[in-house]
Design goal:
alpha+beta; five-stranded mixed beta sheet; binds zinc ion
Length: about 280
Amino acid sequence: MPELPEVETVVRGLRKTVLDKTIAKVIVDAPPKSIVVSESFKNKSFESVLKNRTIEQINRRGKNILIGLSGDITLWVHLKMTGHFYYKNIKTKKEKHDLITFHFKKPDSNFKLIFNDYRRFGRNRLYYTNEVMEQKGLKELGPEPLDISPNDFVTLVKSKNRMIKPALLDQSLIVGIGNIYADESLYASKIHPKRILSSLSKKKLIELHGNIQRILSMAIDNMGSSVDTYTGVNGETGKFQNYLKAYGKEGKQCQRCSRKIVREKIGSRSAHYCPKCQKI
Ligand SMILES: [Zn+2]
C-alpha cells in the first residue's frame, strides 16, 4: 500500500499537472462501492457534482489525498492497495483498470487524468469541504510525523502500553507510516518491533522520531518506494526501494552486523528486523 512518501509524491505530481484546471466531464467505469457522494448533494451523481469544477488545492492528510474544488467541495481519495493517478495524453487508449477519467476544459483538453485501480479497494469520495474532515477515516487521524516535534512525539507515545510496530501502523496514533517505513525506522533506531512503547527511554524515542523524519524525507526526495505496483502520476517508479535496509530483506545480511534479517508476523503484519541489532 502506498505510504506517506508515495502519497506525497502523487500529491506533488497532481499539483504539477492538474492544479487550476477545470473539469469538463468525468467518465466513471468503477464498481459502486469505490465511489461515495455525500448525502448533502441530494442524490446528484459523482459526475454531475464534478462537472465544471476547478481544481483549486491538492493536499495530503496521512495517506489520504484531498482535492479542493471550486464551490467548497472536496474530492477525498484513498489509493488503498493499487489505486493510481495517471496524467496522460487524451489520445492514450483506455486501459482495463481505468475506473475514472477526468477530462478538462480548453486549453487543457489535450490531457486526461485517470484513476486506475487493479484491486479496486481505492475510494473516491465527494463531500462539502466543511464536512469532509468530520468523516470516519479522516476525523480520527493522529498527527503528521513530519510536523510533530520530538517532545510532542515522546508525549504522544511514551505512556502507551503496547508493542511499537503495530502502534506505528495505527493511523489514529500517528499517520502515514506503513509497513515499509515502520520497519526501516525501527531498524535505524535499533528497536525490536515487539518492544513495548512505555519501556523505551525518552532518549531512544527522540532518536526514533529523528529516524522517522529522516527516512520519510529521504523517501519523498526519492519519489517513494516501488516495492509493488506503485508509480507516480507520470508513470515513473520511485527509487527509495534501493535504500531499504530491513523491509523485504529477510535472509539478507544486516548491513551493520552481518546477521541475517528475519521476517516475523507481529500483530497482523510481517515485521523485518535484525535479531542481533534489535534486541527485545
Ligand atoms: Zn544487525
